[in-house]
Design a protein that fits this description.
By secondary structure, the protein is mainly α. It is built from 16 helices and 2 strands. It has helices spanning about 5-20, 30-35, 65-80, 90-100, 120-130, 155-160, 165-175, 180-200, 205-215, 220-235, 240-255, 285-295, 300-310, 315-330, 335-345, 350-375, and strands at about 105, 110-115. A hairpin with a 4-residue loop joins strand 1 (about 105) and strand 2. This is ADP-ribosylglycohydrolase family protein.
Length: about 375
């Protein structure tokens, strides 16, 4: 059985692995990935935008990670600094400060820069809200484009609440409400809960799905329920990937109306759409499809991540979400040594060292929680 530190390490390495596997093919559809690559199962994959004018000075492939990993490390470092649980006030006072004012090595730029220079608009929004507008921190996510931007880096809340999914859900929501709203916020809470559950000894895939369904609300719950249910049926008859994707995409269309049209172009300006807008009926795509591929593959680590990133669209975040859950289940020994070495070298980050530092802090936070609960029990 993996130790607590090995599980923490599994989460952190898996964040980088899932991110880097999906990064070179992000925004391509399932069919486009299949036509161009066949199937991506290696970190040494060329970015489809390489040698085009669309790179915008960035590079991907060969293990390079994106903002999913950068923001996860920022959150981990905030926990290491504060050595306590976090809330929305820490979003403005600590998290935004680090991304906006502290130079960091950006693998896609191959140089030090402010992380905010790399971020997508919904993640830059938190700078506007917390720094420029000086908002009430717990209202920071209001008005933001609803997406997976908070969920993609939320796994550390599952670590500091290991074995307590409800606490992970609550704390993730309390922090991420400074960034996201509606079903984007909901996904962050549910993913953190799944990671926390995955730390339990002898946990099963069914246990994790049950936890997600117990805590998820509205469209997020329905999307998880329908996709994981379909995954069980498809697994039972050993369906091929083409059939899997046909079924999954049909279900996703109910909860995420974009379908494969994920690019925002000038031709779409002024045309009404429900894309990225708050709704109690919708769900982000990444979390439910990540859970579905875990079910489809009965929790097999690499197969689940490979299927997830090859499914298309937001491939890096899907890879991250599958990775952090299974990394917490199995620990870092499930990850190939060659993959670990490549990820650390190309991204100039010692993930093992980060994991060791964070595991120590997380263990201290959890022990304080246990002591507090023991004191509470004496009240009765």
């Amino acid at each position: 059985m993996p130790s607590f530190q090995e599980k923490v390490s599994g989460v952190i390495y898996s964040t980088a692995l899932g991110d880097a596997l999906g990064a070179p093919i992000e925004k391509l559809s399932y069919q486009e990935i299949k036509d161009r690559y066949g199937r991506v199962e290696s970190l040494k994959t060329e970015w489809y935008k390489t040698n085009t004018q669309e790179t915008m000075g960035k590079k991907r492939g060969n293990g390079i990670t994106t903002d999913d990993t950068l923001l996860t490390i920022v959150l981990i470092n905030l926990f290491i600094k504060e050595k306590r649980h976090l809330d929305a006030y820490d979003m403005g006072n600590g998290f935004v400060k680090r991304i906006a004012f502290e130079p960091t090595y950006i693998p896609e730029f191959d140089k030090k820069a402010m992380i905010i220079d790399r971020l997508f608009y919904p993640e830059k929004y938190i700078f506007i809200r917390h720094v420029l507008a000086n908002c009430e921190p717990r209202e920071g996510g209001l008005g933001n484009m609803v997406n997976c931007g908070a969920a993609m880096y939320i796994a550390p809340f599952g670590i500091v609440n290991a074995g307590n999914p409800k606490a992970a859900y609550d704390e993730a929501i309390l922090f991420a409400m400074g960034h996201q709203n509606s079903y984007g916020l909901e996904a962050a809470g549910v993913l953190a809960a799944c990671v926390a559950k995955a730390f339990e000894p002898d946990v099963t895939v069914d246990d994790i799905i049950e936890t997600a369904l117990m805590l998820a609300k509205d469209g997020t719950r329905k999307a998880v329920e329908e996709l994981t249910g379909a995954a069980r049926e498809l697994k039972a008859r050993a369906a091929g990937m083409d059939e899997v994707m046909e079924v999954f995409k049909g279900i996703l269309a109910v909860y995420s109306p974009m379908k494969d049209d994920v690019k925002r172009t000038s031709e779409k300006l002024g045309i009404p759409a429900n894309h990225y807008t708050p709704s109690r009926l919708f769900s982000i795509e990444e979390l439910p499809i990540a859970l579905a591929f875990i079910v489809l593959n009965n929790g097999e680590y690499y197969q689940s991540i490979y299927d997830g990133v090859n499914s298309g669209r937001d491939t890096d975040s899907i890879g991250v979400m599958i990775g952090v859950i299974l990394g917490a289940m199995y620990g870092d020994s499930v990850i190939k040594k060659t993959d670990k070495q490549l990820l650390e070298t190309i991204n100039k980050t010692n993930y093992k060292e980060v994991a060791e530092q964070f595991a120590s802090v997380a263990e201290s936070i959890i022990k304080k929680d246990i002591l507090m609960n023991e004191k509470r029990r004496k009240l009765f």
